[in-house]
Amino acid sequence: MTQQQCSILIIDDAYTVREYLRQTLLHLGISNVHEAASGSKGLSAFKQHHHDLVFLDIELPDMNGQQILQKIKLQADKTHVVMVTAHNSVDNVQQSIAAGASGFIAKPFSPQKIKNIVDRCLAAKLN
Fold this sequence. Notes:
single chain, globular, alpha/beta
């Protein structure tokens, strides 16, 4: 799978974070990007498209990111889910990895960090 074939979903209530991620992904050559500002909208979008990679905020207004992670993994356990948060606690990291997250990034993050995550997830999909 190439980056151009990759389908990505961004679930974050902050417009600026979604836009930053979308722009970064576009610069990486990924144009198949969907966005959701809430957990319920994110789950709905995921049911429609079954994305290859999901950037998921842990703290959303309507649902906890850990709950969404579990629902996504039940639907498609091969989907890579990267948890995004401003609160980089050891508990959050441990709970996310235990629930099946592929990675964890703390805000603010750099375009290089996003590229590294996308590259790692795509490489894992090929194996």
